[in-house]
Amino acid sequence: MSDNGHDVVVLDQFINPAAVGSGLVIQPVGFEILKKLEIADELLEKGACGYQMLGLETDSGRKVLDVSYGESGGENFGLGIHRSSIFDVLFRSAQQRKVNIEQGSKVVNSTIIEGLRYLELEDGKQIGPFELVVDASGVKSKLSPLRSKDLPFGAIWGTVDWPENTTLKYNQLEQRYRKASNMIGILPIGSLPNENKDKATLFWSIPSNDYNLWCKTDIEKWHAEAEALWPELTPFVRQITEHKQMTMARYSHGQLYKPYAERLVFIGDSAHRASPQLGQGANMALLDAYALSSALEQCSLKQYSLKDALRTYAKARRNHVMVYQAMSWAFTPMYQSHSKVLPLLRDWMLAPMSQIPPVAAILTSLVKGTMVDACKGLGK
Predict the structure, then answer these.
(1) How many other C-beta atoms lie within 10 A of the C-beta of residue 91?
(2) From the centroid of its chain, how far is CA 161?
(3) Which residues are CB-contacts of 24 (< 8 A; sequence separation ≥ 6)?
(4) Could you give the count of Cα atoms lying within 13 Å of 238 in the half-sphere of its Cβ?
(5) Tell me, what's the pLDDT at 139?
(6) Cα dist from 252 to 26, 175, 246, 287, 332, whole Å
(7) Residue 67: left (phi > 0), alpha (psi -120 to 50), or beta?
(8) Which of 23, 44, 82, 209 would be a feasible disulfide site paired with 201, CB 3.0-4.6 Å?
(9) How many Å apart are CA 251 and CA 249, to the nearest integer?
(10) Whole-angstrom Cα distance, residue 38 to residue 32?
């Protein structure tokens, strides 16, 4: 937005701005937005290009997930990257654009006074006025009216070194399942800021309510359980020697049909939430930000009102968000649930069908984020 001449103030709740979490995947649809921000090349240097998503049922050895982006080394890929690396590049880009960043500012409420938006901070301070407040504070937003449904399964995530003695490929995300109640995976994510060593994100699916139980479980017992599920992952798993190396992520599902109010608009997880099974979370947030910026610019050129711009933003993103929310809702229980029937449906019907044209191409477009127009009416 600052590129379009707007005065932008970013309120960050941390005293020292930093990323939270482990690795993620930037899909092709999201990478196009990073190109427009002129930071794609920097992120390519820090991330790992993945050209395949592969998942096997560990007991039968059946291939139940196989998505190819295209030829290895080609232009289509999912960029695995650590959150700290993408944050580092985005933060420096914001500083270069002279964006005003207010640190240690945790927003707890907002009000309209004389037609403008004011924000209340945790320390009781009121700041403003603002012509528009963009809520990008995620699932813990104090401003969003979204009431999402908690999902029964989450995952623990940790960052490990990519070992030299592994036969796994550094250009693909791999997962192993036992039915839908057990899942482990490894995602190559490139290197951390100011480092050159190859890293990966290790993730392990568990019921959301079992995290405290896992923390009380002997780490060696967990090693044995994880290695029994996927023996080749031993050199990765053995790097986890303390429970605190793994962070619990709990998931929820829901969306705002109207992601805006008077001089207030919601993007990312404050507007819609889903499990990360399709790897779309970061991409959806990038698309929201792009659509909002484009809608504001488009309506400014046509001398339309701010309310018209927010309506344009919501309309542009509605179909894409609804489709991916529905797909996430449908697919997640097949990979994370206690169901005995859904894994059979996944293994014996959906997996074979996914290899038959045109289903394979549809599945690939689903993962890429291009199944439907991501920003309808705005271009991309």
Answers:
(1) 19
(2) 22
(3) 80, 81, 83, 86, 276, 279, 281, 282
(4) 10
(5) 93
(6) 20, 22, 20, 20, 11
(7) beta
(8) 23
(9) 7
(10) 10
- Dump pLDDT digits (tens) for 142-155: 999 999 999 999 99
Amino acid at 112: I
The whole-chain average pLDDT of the chain stands at 93
Contact predicate 350/65, CB 8 Å:
no
In this structure, the number of other CB atoms found within 10 A of the CB of residue 329 comes to 16
Structure-token pair, residue 104 = 């240690």
Whole-structure pTM value: 0.94
What are the structure tokens assigned to 294, written together? 């484009």
For the chain, the residue count is: 380
Amino acid at 113: I
> What is the reported pLDDT for 81?
97
CA distance 245 to 266: 32
Q: 73 is written with which tokens?
A: 């080394």
Q: Output the CA torsion sign for 169, 174, 177, 183.
A: positive
